[in-house]
Specification:
Helix content is 42%, strand content 17%. The protein has 254 residues and is of the alpha/beta class. α7 links the parallel β5 and β6. The longest helix has 15 residues.
């Protein structure tokens, strides 16, 4: 594994072909970290075909993830991130464990061992880190897919007190949203009983610019799938989990 002294950490991402956000928000967070911490990062991606956020396309896309893991391990990345939360959560309870183990095995078989982070598993991990019992969330998916995400999270032991499904099927339209719209949209979410708000339960829906603003506004921890993924990437690399302006999860105290 690389260290700050010899070369930059290589961050590999398995990305849906229509995703235009994960390759901007994850680098943006880690680049902002570079301003205050010594470690440096490079970013490398492999893509799986998916245009419409439907169960059929998500399952077909997920079947390509082994190929992507092999391609990224050819580059000897230091950590491999699976950048689609809903593709994991619609395949059944606990599937992030199955996916992570399978993709990790691909890197082992390719003699380029790398830990694997899924955005789904990272979100679950983040809720545990924040000692969450009750969570409210916003997702861009159609309602049936959003309900599957809610069920997945509840199967992991958390109570979802409320959720908003923005019902946008086209993945490019999801990625084109203004993240600051979430500052107002969160007012439509009943988060009064929630310990944590997931401002974007989707790595494609931009939210980074709104995370700290909404957290300051509502006075409780605010995270996103991308924020959780960045946390877990740093955790797997054994680095301080600190990124300025990205909410409580990444304030360095966890």
């Amino acid at each position: 594994m690389a260290t700050a002294a010899d070369r930059a950490y290589r961050i590999g991402q398995i990305v849906p072909s229509s995703n235009i956000t994960m390759e901007t928000e994850i680098p943006a967070m880690l680049r902002s970290r570079e301003a205050v911490e010594p470690e440096r990062f490079t970013f490398h991606s492999s893509r799986m075909r998916m245009k419409e956020v439907t169960k059929e396309q998500l399952e077909s896309m997920d079947d390509e993830s082994d190929r992507c893991a092999a391609e990224l391990s050819d580059a000897q990345v230091d950590v491999l991130g699976y950048a689609c939360l809903v593709a994991i959560m619609t395949r059944g309870a606990g599937y992030h464990h199955v996916s992570q183990e399978r993709l990790f095995r691909v890197t082992v078989d390719n003699d380029a061992i790398a830990p694997v982070v899924t955005s789904a598993g990272a979100l679950i991990d983040a809720l545990s880190v924040l000692n969450t019992e009750r969570v409210a969330l916003i997702a861009p998916y159609m309602r049936p897919l959003t309900e599957q995400v809610v069920s997945y999270i509840q199967d992991e032991g958390f109570k979802v007190t409320d959720y908003l499904a923005l019902e946008i099927p086209d993945n490019l339209q999801v990625g084109a949203r203004d993240p600051l719209e979430l500052v107002d949209i969160v007012d439509q979410l009943d988060h009064s009983d929630a310990d944590v708000v997931v401002l974007s339960a989707c790595v494609q829906m931009p939210s980074l610019a709104a995370i700290q603003i909404v957290q300051d506004k509502i006075g409780k921890p605010v995270i996103s799938a991308a924020v959780a993924t960045s946390y877990h990437i740093l955790k797997q690399l054994g680095l301080r989990r600190y990124i300025p302006g990205a909410g409580e999860l990444l304030d360095g105290s966890h």
